[in-house]
Structure formats: C-alpha cells, structure tokens
Amino acid sequence: MLVVQQVFTLAGTTLGAVLALLAPMTTSALSRRDKDRDVQRGTAADIMALFDDGASPTAVFTGRQSPPRRRLYLLALRLQDAAAREACMRFIASAGQSPVDEDALMEAWESMMDRIGSVYRRGRQAVS
C-alpha cells in the first residue's frame, strides 16, 4: 500500500513538473499564432482598402503602370493563405492583360474578395 502511494506521488510530481515546463512553450505558441492571425487580418484589410474609393476595378487596376495593382501584388505576397494569394494573382493577371476582358476581371475580383474576406474573418477575435 505504501509503495502504491509513493508511485502515485512520484507520478503526480513528475506530471506536474512536465506541465510546468511545457506551459511557457504552449503560451508562446498560442501568442505567436494570434499575432500571425492579426498580421494576416491586417494584410487582408489593406487589400480591401485598395477598393474603398468605390471606383471600378477595371478603371483602377488596368493599364501598364498601375500603382494600385503593384501594391496589391506586394500585399498578396504577404498572405499565408495559398488560395487567397492565388486569387489575388489571378486578378492581377486579368487586370494586366492588354485587351481587358471585363467579365473575366470581375469574376477574378469576386473570387479574390471572397478569399480575402475569409482571411479577414478568420483573424477576427471574439469580443465578450
């Protein structure tokens, strides 16, 4: 009986020590994940802000030297979500074509905004 009690005491102490050693690593990993989500949400917000003026994507993002299109490209490279990054690249490619196909451009824009919106919503923190 005494041996069983000592084994449980030893096991409990060992488990407590392991948990105490793992707690800082777990906290750090969760903090890093939250920070990464916040950064991704900020990038998504910056991309959506490119369209805040209400101008048509056809007018703003087409043309050989389009600063908003270059800005979108740089922001898209920061995205960790591969589907969102690919949707941005498809929009950029559609906007950069010489005769712009407005239907294809708007379809690419809708797809991009859907993906960017999901990245933005994923980063939102619950407020209680």
Q: Overview of this structure, please?
A:
The protein has 128 residues and is mainly alpha-helical. 78% of the residues lie in helices and 0% in strands. The chain is built from five helices and no strands. The protein starts with a helix and ends in a 6-residue tail after the last helix. The mean pLDDT is 87.
In short:
The protein is mainly alpha-helical and 128 residues long.
Features:
mainly alpha; 0% strand; 128 residues; rod-shaped
Give the topology.
Layout: H1 2-49, H2 57-61, H3 67-78, H4 82-95, H5 102-122
Q: Compute the number of strand runs.
A: 0
Structural class: mainly alpha
Percent of residues in helices comes to over 70%
* Mean pLDDT across residues: 87
Low-confidence stretches: none
The coarse overall form would be rod-shaped
Q: How far is it from the N-terminal to the C-terminal residue, by CA?
A: 50 Å
Helix and strand element order? HHHHH
Q: What is the radius of gyration?
A: 24 Å
- How much of the sequence lies in strands comes to under 5%
Number of helices in the DSSP assignment: 5
Sheet of most strands? none
